[in-house]
From TrEMBL:
It comes from Botrytis fragariae. InterPro entries: Cu-oxidase-like_N, Cu-oxidase_2nd, Cu-oxidase_C, Cu-oxidase_fam, Cu_oxidase_CS, Cu_oxidase_Cu_BS, Cupredoxin. GO terms for molecular function: copper ion binding; hydroquinone:oxygen oxidoreductase activity. Its cofactor is Cu cation. Keywords: Copper, Glycoprotein, Lignin degradation, Metal-binding, Oxidoreductase. This is laccase.
Length: 942
């Protein structure tokens, strides 16, 4: 398809004109200036790391792209623990759209099918595919490509359409006004400008109301007639022979005509009375949406300039010129009908959208008939998952939009922007004594604060983060939790797998593209360091599935121990999981005796305003149920995956998980408790969700504007006492997992064993957890990627490597838990699909699994004495860790790694950098290190 390929090359050529992302050695790096940040009137109480100006209440503004100024994040000297998450100060507010061209080459392209609707992102392969018969009718590949390009450029889709997928059923929400309703006819007329020049016309076939007999439909067999009768009751877009006597965009269904085998069906015009009725149903605007004036002929029939154009048509046999659109001179009627029947009939096997969405005809019977044409045309023009609306920008009233080319309907697994903007941060890790709840404790902190600074960027930005290790005694590596690291496996930050640790006095630059949007966190993946303070939040601004006025930013919640994680880890081996001394909300709380520390306090909620809150569980052993007294949560995102919004009073959040929720300030102005409670499942003896000495008092305060701040007297909702994931998670981008590829009972099983359940002789301390009777113990000085560099296949058995050599295939994993403790399972490099999750260790029935739009995320609970069935596609070459996110458990061996498409890794990442990092680590470890407990690998190492 040379025309399409040349068009793609032309697009890529234009793309290359856009500013490229800068490397770390070239010019000063840039990031966004916080000087442009505006806040609402909501104020924070208590010490704050940064003072921010305030402004009048109102929706969050969008910062225009020109407000990108040079800045480098520097280490803070203020070590006072933050007691507020600065409610309403818009720390993570949406950055404005970037006007530079997005790379077409980097976006994946769907497979071409019988007929695909054009989309702006994937124009050549998702437009109408070229059929060789078109050449016979005088339409070249280049002309066909240009025609589809014109359609895309001249027909921006409506902004008024939204839809929901709820538990396997379709619910359509159609918002129509006069201009929107006219788009059906206007769009069809615009399409016909191109088709009629070639003697064809696009019609919307009107379904018949009555049941048809076999004699009233076309078809050579009983099955064909049965299908024709079924299809005759549906609206269908078809392309047929042009009709020069009428410019109507409607036709009676071609399936309802009685025809002979020699005279195949064709569209039939409708009466003027029927046309008038349809015009009343779909009123006509003054223009067709593209500046082309339209008029209505006597009797209601529509005309535009295209209906009277006299474009020539080349004859297939003589290369003579046909005289007018609709004329059949030079093209036999049988040939026209052949073309019509072969490439232009929409059938139930047709995939309309990129990404595998089901054919429109499968949806049509579920939609009210009066809304059908508008609904279908919207699908056709927007390509549903590739929304391209040039004027659709992210504001308080249009959070579903982003930068005109991307929206909430863009699946970030398939497409993402590349803004060319580099956002730079420097994170310096130091030893320091801190008092988060008033109790002094030796900690490891980032830029002198706990939690560390929030990393903020826009969807499609490149993050360039320098991590400087100034810890006195130990190495460090930083993992960017949930970031899939497409083609940047060496940036995943897992020592012993993707890199060697960063030794004291050294630094590493992590650089990767933000292909996802939402909320996450970064943390050390060196032993259990993050439990000592090496962590912070990540916000990637992007579209949302519900509107809101203000973004409150991240709210990390964690357990807190007065001893170091090294000391607690040793105790956990001999005495079981330790009890946390306290829990912190955004790094602060009162201590259990209420003698020191402060609650995280926030005031200034404006009545009626909607707030986005980004909740993160950064614990090492505690899971939480979170709630805000008297206020409901509208949950819009889990981990980095947008979901269909649902309303709840409480949210269960496991270690490593994130939930983005909308809170509406719709209660009586007062002070309200925000609570994080460790549940106590009655069947798990208090160990299931972790233990906390201050459980019931892990709180923050939310206050309304004008209310004097004081301890609330509000009452809590009833808190579920379970450690089970939320059950109402329905991914916004519905995707089915191919059931036929799940082979039972030969699907891969991963059996988790622990204290009292292992079939092996007792492993050496501290390795008390294993998967398939193998515990993980990585080598800091020889990561997996270095094995790949050297072509060395002699892996240590305790590297726990599972090789996945095949590209783009589904892999299925049945994870069984033989222990009475649940585990939060986290996978690097992928979001996985949750097919099943039950409190039964014996998985025996494939029919219980959900293959139709299962929930997707990167952390899911493996129930106690239960199973978790997950699936993912091998589309990201690299070495990817799968592990329990309870820090004690992964330290005690509960992990494995997938070595995905090992033969391709060297082609995608710079493995020489891994060798250089390891030489730096070896030099320090072998010459400068002083032996002590902190730098000796005493556990799994991750």
């Amino acid at each position: 398809m040379s025309g399409a390929l040349s068009l793609l090359a032309e697009l890529d050529k234009e793309t290359n004109k856009a500013p490229s992302r800068k490397n770390s050695q070239a010019k000063p790096r840039t990031s966004r200036s916080t000087a442009n940040s505006r806040s609402s009137s909501v104020q924070s109480r208590g010490p704050s790391q940064t003072q921010r100006p305030t402004s009048a209440p109102g929706p969050s503004p969008v910062i225009p792209p020109q407000n990108i100024t040079p800045r480098r994040t520097t280490q803070s000297t203020n070590v006072t623990p933050r007691t507020s998450f600065e409610l309403g100060t818009e720390r993570s507010r949406s950055q404005g759209p970037d006007s530079r061209r997005v790379s077409f080459a980097e976006a994946p392209r769907p497979q071409t099918r019988t007929l695909m609707i054009p989309s702006k992102e994937n124009m050549p392969s998702s437009g109408f595919p070229y059929n060789i018969k078109l050449n016979k009718y005088g339409v070249s590949e280049h002309e066909w490509s240009q025609f589809t390009k014109e359609i895309i450029e001249t027909l921006p889709p409506s902004k008024s359409f939204s839809w929901l997928w709820k538990r396997g059923k379709i619910t359509a929400i159609i918002k129509r006004d006069l201009q929107y309703e006219s788009e059906l006819k206007s769009a069809l007329r615009q399409w016909n400008k191109g088709f009629r020049r070639r003697g064809f016309q696009v019609y919307l076939e009107i379904p018949v109301e009555k049941d048809l007999t076999d004699d009233e439909v076309s078809g050579d067999t009983k099955e064909e007639k049965k299908q024709a009768k079924k299809d005759a009751k549906k609206f269908r877009f078809i392309i047929g022979a042009g009709n020069s006597s009428s410019s109507s965009v409607y036709s009676r269904t071609s399936l309802a005509e009685s025809v002979s085998r020699e005279d195949k069906a064709k569209p039939a015009p409708i009466s003027r009375e029927e046309e008038d009725q349809l015009n009343q149903k779909f009123p006509q605007a003054q223009t067709n949406g593209t500046g082309t004036a339209t008029s209505t002929t006597e009797g209601g029939h529509d005309e535009d300039e295209s209906s009277i154009e006299k474009a020539p048509i080349l004859s297939p046999s003589t290369d003579t010129v046909d005289h007018a659109p609709g004329s059949t001179q030079g093209i036999g009627p049988t040939e026209r009908r052949d073309l019509y029947t072969e490439i232009c009939i929409l059938d139930e096997n047709l995939t309309i959208t990129s990404g595998g969405f089901m054919g429109l005809l499968l949806l049509w019977p579920l939609i009210p008939r009066i809304a059908l044409p508008t609904f279908v045309m919207e699908l056709a023009l927007s390509n549903i998952k590739r929304t391209s609306t040039s004027n659709c920008l992210n504001t308080a009233s249009s959070r579903n939009c982003w930068n005109g080319n991307y929206s909430i309907d863009t699946d970030s697994e398939e497409a993402w922007p590349d803004t060319g903007v580099v956002v730079a941060y420097t994170l310096t890790i130091t030893n320091q004594t801190m008092s988060p709840d008033g109790t002094p404790r030796w900690m490891l902190v980032v830029n002198g604060t706990y939690p560390g600074p929030t990393i903020t960027a826009n969807w499609g930005d490149t993050l360039e983060i320098t991590v400087a290790n100034q810890i006195i005694t130990d190495g460090v590596s930083i993992h960017w939790h949930g970031i899939v690291q497409k083609n940047t496996n060496t940036m995943d930050g897992v020592n012993g797998i993707t890199e060697c640790p960063i030794p004291p006095g050294s630094s590493k630059i992590y650089k990767f593209l933000a292909t996802q949007h939402g909320t996450s966190w970064y943390h050390s993946h060196h032993a259990a360091q993050y439990g000592d303070g090496v962590l912070g939040s990540i916000v990637i601004n992007g579209p949302a599935s519900l509107n809101y006025d203000h973004d409150l930013g991240p709210l990390p919640i964690t357990d807190f121990y007065y001893k170091s994680t090294y000391e607690e880890g040793l105790l956990s081996v001999s005495k079981g999981p330790p009890k946390a001394d306290n829990g912190l909300i955004n790094g602060t709380n009162r201590n259990p005796h209420k003698t020191a520390g402060v609650y995280n306090q926030a005031s200034g909620l404006v009545p009626g305003a909607k707030y986005r809150l980004r909740i993160i569980n950064t614990s090492i052993d505690n899971h939480f149920q979170v709630t805000l007294d008297s206020h409901s949560f509208q949950v819009i995102q889990t981990d980095f995956v947008p979901i269909q919004p649902y309303t709840t009073n409480t949210v269960f959040i496991a270690i490593g998980q994130r939930y983005d929720v909308i809170i509406t300030a719709d209660q009586t102005p007062s002070n309200y408790w925000f609570r994080a409670i460790v549940p106590k499942p009655p069947t798990q003896k208090g160990f299931g969700c972790g233990q906390n000495a201050n459980n019931g008092s892990i709180n923050a305060i939310f206050s309304y504007q004008g209310v004097e701040l004081s301890e609330p007297t509000s009452n809590s909702f009833l808190i579920p006492q379970s450690c089970e994931d939320e059950t109402q998670l329905v991914s916004w981008h519905e995707k089915a997992v191919p059931e036929n590829e799940f082979v039972w009972p030969t699907a891969q099983e991963l059996v988790v064993t622990g204290p009292g359940s292992s079939s092996l002789p007792k492993a050496p301390a501290p390795y008390i957890w294993s998967i398939n009777d193998t515990y993980m113990e990585i080598e800091w000085d020889k990561p997996t990627l270095q094995y790949v560099t050297q072509g060395n296949k002699n892996y240590n058995v305790h590297q726990s490597i599972i090789e996945l050599p095949d590209a783009n295939v589904w892999t299925f994993w049945i994870i069984k838990n033989a222990a009475a403790v649940p585990h939060p399972i986290h996978l690097h490099g992928h979001d996985f699909y949750i097919l099943g999750q039950e409190n039964s260790v014996n998985f025996t029935d494939k029919s219980t699994l959900n293959f139709a739009n299962p929930a997707r995320r990167d952390v899911a609970m493996l129930p106690a004495l239960g199973y978790l069935v997950i699936a993912f596609v091998t589309d990201n070459p690299g070495a990817w860790l799968l592990h329990c996110h309870i820090a004690f458990h992964v330290g005690e061996g509960l992990a494995l790694q997938f070595l995905e498409r090992e033969s391709e890794i060297a082609q995608r990442v710079d493995l020489s950098a891994v060798d250089a990092e390891c030489k730096t680590w070896d030099a320090w470890y072998n010459t400068e290190r002083v032996d002590n407990a902190w730098n000796t690998e005493f556990d799994s190492g991750v």
